[in-house]
Design a protein that fits this description.
Blueprint lengths: L2 E6 L5 H16 L3 E6 L13 E7 L4 H8 L15 E6 L3 E6 L2 H18 L7 E4 L5 E7 L27 H13 L4 E5 L4 H4 L13 H20 L3 E7 L5 H7 L10 H17 L3 E6 L6 H21 L10 E4 L6 H7 L6 E6 L12 H11 L4 E6 L13 H13 L5 E4 L20 H4 L1 H12 L5 H16 L2 H14 L2 H9 L15 H5 L9 H4 L8 H10 L8 H23 L6 H38 L7 H28 L24 H23 L5 H4 L13 E3 L5 E4 L14 E4 L7 E4 L2 H6 L3 E6 L3 E8 L28 E7 L5 E8 L2 E6 L6 E7 L7 E2 L16
Parallel strand pairs: 1-2, 1-3, 3-5, 7-8, 7-14, 8-9, 9-10, 10-11, 11-12, 12-13, 13-14, 21-25
Antiparallel strand pairs: 4-5, 4-6, 15-19, 16-18, 17-21, 19-23, 20-22, 20-24, 21-22
Length: 903
């Protein structure tokens, strides 16, 4: 039996000790007898130890490594290792030196050497190898979240208890996950929660803030401390993410506050400062990730809250802490401009990071561009580390995704196009961690099902610039190890690569949003394809998160006019997606005969490839139907009895689409519990209601009804009968009924909404045209300057449940308040009114037109405080008042959109 001595300095750091343990186990598994030695070796004494020797250390702290470098015994043919870098060298006298740029570098050097020992079955000779990560932070996000809300708590708000999150206390699961992350050389785990402090700290000044029992609290602290220590041993920062300003339910109830606060109060600031200080004292090795843009009006109060509350609490907590490295503080660039916050904070705390979403809340392209690229580049230019956040993946849910070449290009884009140096990766099914959505008993773990998703992102976060041909061989061999043969590995890799192109291409050309409110695999309605404006499309999808190209209506108009096309076109994308889907099916079928291992998982992967194929075919026919309808729209120009041949062909395409959707539904009934992991009201596309419409089987009747309606309308037109929607086009529009209210704010005043009325108390800006529904209502006016510069709070008392009509100006200029969006604020629809009821419902002299939204409130006293920017309050109406959405600019009530064909 061969013997080897593993030496290291006395009292090695936990990360170094863990690496040494990995190395020793690899040697023992390969038949070596291992002697451990806390070696006080020097350059002239290490040879006295007989036989093969390995020495592990951090070159910044090890005397032996320093001596060997000074005497040119330990030489580096690459850059000398720094930070997480390492170098493994065979030195004279039978010594293999593992030189780390830090404790983490030594750990990664041990990991590399252990892997090489296992690969060849012995300690390698003549090794000279150095490596270092290209991205500073590399790790996954794990959510302490549920798929549905728990009223009266709101989205994100879940106290940490064994009943809600049994997996959080499962130490074996955590160790599996942490070991996997170390194998992938991750160095951070982002743990997401709405307000975790009420489960992890107790404050003498605010005992009501604790949301768990004393027993649960003790268990939480013990579990969290253990988790932080185990992560640290593996070179992994644990970072806790929280929202601002979210407060605990019992704290809110005691002090008469709402759960989400838009601006700082002395009470909430004191509570947060003390919570963070207590948390840091208890867990000094845990970082914080701060979201200033969801609830808090970050543009106004971000600098104040971050510096005077969060950093103040952090510095107070660190005052007496003995930590080797200060914890990272990450500022999330979500619905705010973080630059001014960072610039103000850097003098107080230098270990700051920024984060922004990569492709929004989907995965659409490896060439992000436009405004979003500029945001990343600007953040990447600050004196901080900038992180890309691969977030939610709403267009990939619920299927497997493992296209390594696509992922590699994404990480290259993150480095070169976006100037980022960190990765924050969501699981494929974030809201239901640790389980996958597969219909399997017992439930599959995402860690096991989606191993290739994690492994590919983290491999290319370590080094995105690997040779593509070598990478193909690497992944084929990895898959061969799982499925039994190289033939199977190569074919499965081809299936992953081809199927991985489908969802990104479909969403970026045809989707409503790259955000969480659309579940792409559940399909889209004809109205969403042909009249996306009605469904509040998010322009970033095609302006930033897609290559240059044309939307459906733009393509149809250009085609009719004979104009040249620009970039990706809808027919090209449908053809490409169909080709990818068919190549994936052929590849997975080619693999079938060569699979000798992992057969159950292969069957599930086969089902996913087939499901993606069905989804692509469904979309292909439906897009063709939409193009025919749009061609009809722009050809007949209101004479709807003409060119029915276009609608006839659209009907054929729509029916073919439904055939494929039925196939998809039949398949997924057997394979999936649900399609989306977030099953809350924020899900709007294809159908409102994430809980009710979470499976294809629930959506199928909607599409069947859509086809039946289309055929009925076509039949009416064919028979020369005017459809009912067209007959009712001239139906008179009645004014809304008014609900009583009392103003409680000095300096604001009521006014009658009508032509000629002034809408602000300062200046002579008057109404030149308004929708009939608004005429005669009592609006509320205030100073435009005050609202535009700092925001305004309007205190109002409602005598009955009511809708308050809010007017948002159709301009992105900073002086105007922007309508809330679900892409930027998950709570944007908590009061209803997310979509406008009257598009361009008001026109003012020399000002942008105004969209009118209806926000719902109960009877009682309310403060309307929406943040900085001017807007209008155009009346209060009863909650039961019917509000038929329409575009006021078009008197035909949207008939020209042709939605009446399908609804």
């Amino acid at each position: 039996m061969n013997a080897v001595t593993v030496g290291y300095d006395r009292h090695p750091a936990p990360r170094v000790a863990h690496g040494i343990g990995l190395l020793i186990r690899a040697l023992q598994d390969c038949g070596y007898s291992v002697l451990e030695e806390e070696a006080a070796w020097t350059w002239d004494s290490y040879r006295l130890s007989p036989g093969d020797k390995i020495y592990v250390g951090s070159r910044l702290e090890s005397d032996l490594l320093r001596q060997l470098e000074e005497r040119d015994v330990l030489l580096y043919h690459t850059e000398a290792p720094e930070k997480e870098g390492f170098y493994i060298a065979s030195c004279p006298g039978g010594l293999t030196a593992v030189s780390g740029g830090s404790d983490s570098g030594a750990l990664y050097g041990c990991l590399e050497l252990a892997q090489r020992i296992r690969a060849v079955g012995r300690l390698p000779d003549d090794i000279a190898y150095g490596d270092a990560p290209r991205f500073s932070l590399r790790g996954p996000a794990i959510g302490l979240q549920k798929t549905t809300v728990e009223p009266p708590r709101q989205t994100y708000e879940y106290p940490i208890t064994p009943q809600r999150f049994p997996w959080f206390y499962d130490r074996a699961l955590w160790l599996d996950f942490l070991d996997f992350l170390l194998e992938q050389r991750c160095n951070i785990v982002y743990l997401w929660s709405g307000h975790p402090f009420s489960s992890l700290v107790k404050l003498p000044d605010y005992p009501e803030a604790l949301e768990v029992t004393e027993k649960e609290f003790a268990l939480n602290v013990d579990t969290f401390r253990w988790l932080a220590e185990e992560a640290d041993r593996r070179g992994i920062w644990l970072v806790l993410k929280f929202y601002n300003i979210h407060i605990p339910l019992p704290f809110a109830e005691k002090h008469g506050l709402k759960l989400h606060q838009p601006k700082p109060l002395p009470l909430t600031s004191d509570y947060y400062k003390k919570s963070i200080a207590a948390f840091v004292r208890s867990f000094p090795n845990v970082g914080l990730m701060v979201c200033l843009g969801e609830a808090l009006q970050g543009q106004i109060y971000g600098v104040e809250w971050f510096n005077e509350t969060i950093l103040a609490g952090l510095l107070e907590g660190l005052k007496d802490a003995n930590v080797k490295e200060k914890p990272p503080i990450i500022l999330r660039s979500h619905a705010i401009e973080p630059q001014k916050v960072i610039e103000a904070a850097l003098p107080l705390y230098p270990n700051l990071y920024t984060e922004a979403k990569y492709n929004g809340e989907s995965l659409t392209t490896y060439t992000p561009r436009g405004k979003w690229q500029d945001i990343h580049r600007r953040l990447g230019s600050l004196q901080t580390v900038h992180i890309v956040n691969v977030h939610i993946l709403a267009n990939l849910e619920p299927f497997r995704f493992g296209a390594p070449s696509f992922i590699q290009k994404c990480m290259q884009a993150a480095k070169y196009r976006l100037k980022a140096s960190g990765l924050h990766l969501y699981p494929l099914f974030f809201w239901d961690w640790p389980y996958s959505p597969d219909a399997a008993e017992p439930r599959l773990r995402q860690l096991d099902r989606d191993w290739i998703w994690f492994a590919a992102w983290f491999r290319y976060a370590w080094n995105p610039d690997r040779d593509p041909e070598a990478e193909r061989h690497y992944w084929a061999c990895v898959l061969a190890g799982r499925y039994g043969s190289l033939e199977a590995g190569e074919a499965i890799l081809d299936a992953y690569e081809a199927s991985g192109q489908c969802a990104p291409k479909l969403l970026r050309r045809f989707g409503i949003t790259e955000g969480n409110r659309q579940t792409m695999s559940l399909g889209m309605t004809m109205s969403q394809l042909t009249n996306p404006e009605r469904h509040m499309p998010w322009p970033d999808l095609w302006e930033s998160q897609s290559p240059q190209g044309e939307r459906l209506e733009e393509y149809a108009v250009r085609q009719l006019k004979g104009e040249p096309h620009v970039g990706e076109t809808p027919p090209e994308i449908i053809a490409e997606a169909k080709r990818h889907a068919e190549e994936a099916v052929q590849a997975i079928e080619r693999a079938r005969g060569h699979v000798t291992r992992g057969k159950e998982e292969f069957t599930r992967l086969l089902g996913d490839v087939q499901a993606i194929h069905h989804m692509v075919r469904m979309y292909g026919h439906k897009v063709r139907a939409a193009l025919l309808v749009l061609t009809y729209k722009h050809t007949v120009r209101g004479d709807y009895f003409q060119r029915l041949d276009l609608l006839e062909e659209a009907s054929v395409q729509l029916e073919k689409s439904l055939v494929w959707y039925r196939e998809l539904t039949a398949l997924t009934k057997k394979t999936y519990l649900y399609a989306n992991s977030m099953q809350t009201p924020q899900r709007k596309v294809p159908i409102r209601g994430g809980l009710e419409y979470r499976h294809w089987a629930a959506c199928l009747p909607v599409y069947e009804k859509e086809l039946a309606c289309f055929k009925a309308r076509l039949g009416e037109l064919r028979s020369g009968v005017l459809p009912e929607a067209l007959q009712n086009a001239a139906q008179p529009i009645a004014a809304y009924r008014e609900a009583p209210f009392t103003l409680r704010t000095p300096g604001v005043e009521p006014f009658r909404v009508e032509k000629g009325a002034r809408v602000f108390t300062d200046g002579d800006i008057h109404i030149v045209g308004c929708a009939e529904e608004l005429s005669g209502l009592t609006g509320i006016r205030f100073g435009q300057m005050q609202a535009g510069l700092s925001g305004i709070a309007v205190d109002i008392e409602l005598l009955q449940p009511s809708k308050v009509l809010i007017g948002y100006f159709n301009s992105k200029d900073d002086q105007w308040l922007q309508a809330p969006s679900l892409e930027e604020n998950t709570h944007a629809d908590d009061m209803g009114g997310y979509e406008p009821i009257l598009r361009k419902g008001l026109r003012l002299y020399a000002y942008p037109s105004v969209n009118v939204h209806a926000l719902q409130f109960g009877a009682g006293r309310h403060t309307l405080d929406f943040g900085k920017g001017a807007y209008l309050i155009l009346g209060v109406i009863p909650a039961d008042q019917e509000t038929r959405p329409r575009n006021v600019e078009h008197k035909n009530d949207g008939i020209d959109t042709l939605d009446w064909l399908y609804e």
